[in-house]
Description:
alpha/beta; seven-stranded mixed β-sheet; four-stranded antiparallel β-sheet; 13% strand; binds pyridoxal-5'-phosphate
Amino acid sequence: MSIQAYLDANATAPLRPEARAAMAAALDLTGNPSSVHRFGRLARRCVEDAREQVAILVGARPAQIVFTSGGTEANNLALRGTKGAAILVSAIEHDSVLAAAPGAARVPVTPAGLVDLDALDRLLAGSERPALVSVMLANNETGVVQPISPVAALARARDAWIHCDAVQAAGRMPVAMIELGVDLLTLSAHKLGGPQGVGALVVSDRVELAALLNGGGQERGRRAGTENVAAIAGFGAAAAAALADLDKQGEVGRLRDELEARALAAVPGTIVFGREAVRLANTSCLAMPGLPAETQVMALDLAGVAVSAGAACSSGKVRASHVLAAMGVAPAVAARAIRVSLSWQTTRVDIDRFVEAWTALARRRTARDDIRITLPAA
Ligand code: PLP
């Protein structure tokens, strides 16, 4: 059966038509953006226009944008290219942050999924200076939005730099680099309706960044390699479209809230994680009692509804969620958590399909449990 309801935007959001059109136009440009002739200059113009669009999305200057192959590379560049004497990361960061700084101190979060500011301050006080602190803006599993301005104020008071992974937040809530007070900000195109394989690190003047990729002067010497012109053009167009669409997040939030209210009413014992905190409007992480997340994801897929297991990793396998574990959720409960994430394309019909399929699954689960209970063991 073909997918009828795509509710996995935090994995990849549907491509926006503006991005598709910009990429198609860019693919017809032959030049290398570093070439001085007219073909090269046209390709350069395309890249620089997109740089401006991405900069506007986060209130930065175009010169601060370093295009990368995506959020993963941008996070690696931020953590490995900044020469902090110590690194502190929140316990709920994406794997690309955690793996880029394996020796980093982990800052705990509260049961609501918010970074523990007192613990951060204590860790900073005991760290060598200057430290680098990395805290994401919105969590990819729960959607919980972190108090980045207070985090940045604490970090600054201790001479630390602050990196913020805004991959899930950008295009879904207002993001202003200066108001957040961060030095480094990570973006990824495919979460906001652009293509996969392109992202950016936004770098403030306070930070001196060493390139991870050498061998060319592109991106002001901060990332060597011929630019992926078409992907960058798609990123720029998606950034502009997402910014223009920001006021539609209210409606996205209403749909998400309706989905949760109906799920909670239909399936007793359902848990919604991070609900006490401010969350992205599009994300819901919820656990159905009694059924493993993988089973839910597969059964929903058969019903034409695409969601993720709460902790699906890049290989598609499900493993224990370090995010829910950090929030103090018991492993048996976390193993039942799925993530439903809405996109700019989601409609009430998609919500209806999810609720119908999920509640039908819950009814089947009960029937199976009853059978297991009433039948004598074979
Ligand atoms: N950071 C967060 C919070 C993410 O959710 C993801 C992707 O899921 C990434 C970084 C990695 O981005 P990319 O897929 O562009 O490498």
